[in-house]
Amino acid sequence: xxxxxxxxxxxxxxxxxxxxxxxxxxxxxxxxxxxxxxxxxxxxxxxxxxxxxxxxxxxxxxxxxxxxxxxxxxxxxxxxxxxxxxxxxxxxxxxxxxxxxxxxxxxxxxxxxxxxxxxxxxxxxxxxxxxxxxxxxxxxxxxxxxxxxxxxxxxxxxxxxxxxxxxxxxxxxxxxxxxxxxxxxxxxxxxxxxxxxxxxxxxxxxxxxxxxxxxxxxxxxxxxxxxxxxxxxxxxxxxxxxxxxxxxxxxxxxxxxxxxxxxxxxxxxxxxxxxx
Amino acid sequence: xxxxxxxxxxxxxxxxxxxxxxxxxxxxxxxxxxxxxxxxxxxxxxxxxxxxxxxxxxxxxxxxxxxxxxxxxxxxxxxxxxxxxxxxxxxxxxxxxxxxxxxxxxxxxxxxxxxxxxxxxxxxxxxxxxxxxxxxxxxxxxxxxxxxxxxxxxxxxxxxxxxxxxxxxxxxxxxxxxxxxxxxxxxxxxxxxxxxxxxxxxxxxxxxxxxxxxxxxxxxxxxxxxxxxxxxxxxxxxxxxxxxxxxxxxxxxxxxxxxxxxxxxxxxx
Lengths: 276, 269
Hints:
The structure holds two protein chains of two kinds.
Chain A: E1 4-9, H1 18-27, E2 53-60, E3 66-73, H2 82-86, E4 92-94, E5 100-102, H3 112-116, E6 123-128, E7 134-139, H4 145-148, H5 155-159, E8 165-169, H6 170-184, E9 192-194, E10 204-208, H7 225-269
Chain B: H1 8-27, E1 33-35, H2 39-42, E2 52-54, H3 58-75, H4 79-83, H5 86-89, H6 92-103, H7 107-116, H8 122-143, E3 165-168, E4 174-177, E5 184-187, E6 203-207, E7 214-219, E8 225-230, H9 240-246, H10 248-256
Parallel strand pairs in B: 3-8
Antiparallel strand pairs in B: 1-2, 3-4, 4-5, 6-7, 7-8
Helix pairs in contact in B: 1-3, 1-8, 1-9, 3-8, 6-8, 7-8
């Protein structure tokens, strides 16, 4: 199956926030009241009701000039997704397109995914049912998987008027990003492709104008060791243990039946009386 | 979200046929198609194919008809009995007649042919049209540099197919692709392709709730409609034939609202 990647070239972004509006519109997400942050940025970070946020960063470049840096921030859809690994309910999974999605029916709102995401892009939303009982569910960008299934690009990409975002096959997008970095190196000496290998690469890749930390991104994000231990070792061993225990119980049951039948038969052959 | 009401099985069948038509097109000798375009004549609405000499390879045409039958039977084995024996009805003379009648949309001929040979009504016209398209598509490919616009109401400037579909492309350009011959030309955003009406007060748009990519432009002047698909939203732009098929629900909606696929100015002599 073709793996797709969302390509974001922050150097082409003009901070219009149409991607935020398109996301809210497509996913039917409610508006949120937010405090003034001292800049044009509307939300401090993504939330359960705002799956992508346009960051406005005031940055002093190497020449001492002040620059406004913009970045469309949302889920990275990591190949080695920590959220998926720590989820005790298997509620988080990869789709055939490479996107990471949450099964809302399985999510129990434990919050492990929120705590372990290296990019802090998952949030818990609190709901109240008709009986007044509250429960929580994890929420994040789905990369518009429902649109991709119908051959459409994510809503944020289709609305981007500067061409800062594109959507396409993984190899083509990575190549495009590498080429773009070469083109802008003169203007942005720190420019780079952000596709961190510590999480196996991501399905949202960036052309950044500056170091990742300038954008509040981890320089070398990794899947927490505890998550790897839990998902890749503890769970399979646990399942194997359950399997072994089940096999032992079934084995004991069959053996008991078999031996008790043989014993009964032997008893009858040895002159056991019939009750008839 | 579902973009189309057409079943995946039928979509796959159409994709397979389109794939074959593309291969068949490559088999045609380009020298056998000689367009003699006369812009003055075309300006009156005469399609380019009527001004083109095509030396059809009849044995190739018959081979394609057989291949279409094979594809249909593979996708739906129940059709085997209905399609059996058609090849034996097609001699060179009949094949030439099929090509002529399909080129001129002569539906009555095919209905009569079906009745005479006790075939289901759709079969002869479907086979003839499907096997003819590679020739039309190659003609369109060859004359495309000369095709810039269409005469309102005259249909496709290459094959004459009635216009019913437009796509929105880069920079919001409205491009009309022909689902039959795949020719394409640009049109004004605010203009009815059936009657040329460009009065914005008489052009309306019907939208379908939950359908993020399409709308229907309807004209209150001629009561014609046009399906408009925003193909910029697609990862890979589908072919015009598939766009037309997958948006068939829009035809139903437009026709339920009293609009027609071919507009007619009321009270016109």
